[in-house]
Design a protein that fits this description.
The protein is built from no helices and 41 strands. The protein is elongated. It comes from Oreochromis aureus (Israeli tilapia).
């Protein structure tokens, strides 16, 4: 007699199965199926699942087991409701509630493919059916799903996404060309970048006074000396009601000019500097690095020293050039900054080749480039939405193992160069535990 400890019930079990080793003794579902060698020798007690075995033989020696699945209602109508879906980072909390039809229910929350567990910011209450996140961050946007299980079945809700506003932060003002000194008539572009959701609104300032311009880019066309000064941009987020102002970028407009119209000397190209002045000019002298300039095979002085031409600009030609102009009445000195724009070259990635799972990954890309290069990252051949020199990812997963490439681009030379492949291995163990509950 094999007697279970179950309390007798009038509700039939959903499934009941007795086995001995690999042999089926009896399986009870909608009908009973008895093993041939046990015909006429067994009696099943359906209210408790107990079993009587008679007329024992030597072949009946061994281990006996029973699996019983009680009857119940299948899980259905799994639904997640949220107290809010529009939140501000660091200043809001949200509660998610999961409901379902069924009996003996258990609840599991998922953020994407990861299980949500309790922590200082995360609370699981009401038997796990309620999830509260305190002081939300941008990484709490979801999608959130609720998985509900019963002894009979499992059901999962539709995803719920949260819109979490943040920023502005990490504001950066980029001057192009980046030299800071410009000739009268030059065109200048200032670009303001910032991290913000939703996208920030921009204001521009010159020496602290607001300009009428808006948008992330300020274009100064045909600049004059009166436009010299300190430029800054301010970003404002209408959701977070926060703002951030950049460090000022100084622009100095000088009374000399590049000719022809280009003011972007790229390494390997030809460029001319013109020393202009109104009135009668008697002498012009060019000075570089504190010494009077002596023409070489690479440079020519023409038109009574008015024009300094570089046949092929190279890096050693970069520097600060002075043009001294004088007549019997007055004298003046103009400054021209020459950058032999070059690169990018020697693109490299620095960072770990191995990292533990859930660790923080930081890769840094560098390149020899004038002006500074802009960067694009790739992972296993797929572009990563990141344009900075650093790629940072918190709490890496095993799926982050692979090959990383950084591509550098110089917006002046319009040249692109890529790094060698940087391999990364994420180490650690992802453990899945499957629990079978049986009644023996």
């Amino acid at each position: 007699m094999f007697t279970t400890t179950l309390t007798p019930t009038e509700t039939p079990f959903l499934t009941l199965a007795w086995t001995s080793g690999a042999k089926n003794i009896i399986t009870s579902n909608t009908v009973n199926i008895t093993g041939p060698e046990y015909e006429g020798r067994i009696t099943l007690f359906p209210s408790t699942g107990s079993l009587e075995l008679r007329s024992l033989t030597l072949d009946d020696a061994g281990e006996y087991s029973v699996v019983i699945v009680p009857a119940g209602e299948k899980v259905s109508n799994v639904l997640v409701t949220s107290s809010s879906t529009d939140l501000v980072e660091f200043s809001g909390s949200v509660s998610l509630s999961c409901s379902a039809s069924g009996s003996s229910l258990s609840f599991l929350w998922l953020n994407g493919s990861s299980e949500v567990t309790a922590s200082d910011r995360v609370q699981l209450t009401d038997g796990g059916s309620s999830l509260t996140i305190i002081t939300v961050t941008r990484f709490d946007q979801g999608p959130f799903r609720c998985s509900v299980s019963s002894p009979v079945s499992t059901g999962t809700s539709d995803p719920v996404n949260l819109s979490i506003s943040y920023g502005p932060e990490n504001i950066n003002l980029i001057l192009s060309p980046p030299q800071g000194y410009f000739a009268v008539g030059s065109d200048i572009s200032l670009t303001c970048s910032v991290g913000s959701r939703p996208p920030a609104q921009f204001k521009w300032f010159l020496n602290g006074d607001q300009l009428p311009d808006t948008g992330s880019e300020l274009r100064l066309m045909n600049v004059q000396m009166s436009q010299s000064g300190n430029y800054s941009c301010q970003a404002f987020n209408s959701k977070t009601l926060r703002s951030q102002t950049s460090q000022p970028s100084a622009i100095t407009v000088l009374g000399a000019s590049f000719t022809p119209s280009t003011n972007l000397p790229v390494e390997g190209t030809s460029v001319s500097l013109a020393c202009e002045a109104s009135g009668s000019v008697f002498t012009r002298n060019w000075i570089k690095d504190g010494s009077y300039l002596t023409p070489t095979d690479n440079m020519i002085l023409s038109d009574n020293n008015r024009v300094l031409t570089f046949n092929t600009v190279n890096r050693k030609d970069s520097g600060e050039y002075f043009c001294q102009i004088s007549n019997p009445v007055s004298s003046d000195e103009f400054t021209l900054i020459v950058h032999a724009y070059n690169g990018p070259e020697n693109v490299q990635i620095k960072g770990p080749n191995k990292i533990n799972i859930k660790g923080t990954l930081k890769l840094t890309c560098s390149a020899e480039s004038t002006p500074s290069a802009r960067f694009t990252w790739f992972f296993n051949g797929r572009e990563i939405p990141n344009n900075s020199a650093e790629y940072i990812k918190e709490e890496v997963e095993l799926s982050d193992s692979g090959n990383y490439i950084c591509q550098a681009w110089n917006n002046i030379t319009e040249r692109t160069s890529s790094s060698v492949v940087h391999g990364l291995t994420v180490t650690g163990t992802c453990l899945t535990v499957i629990i079978f509950i049986g009644l023996i």
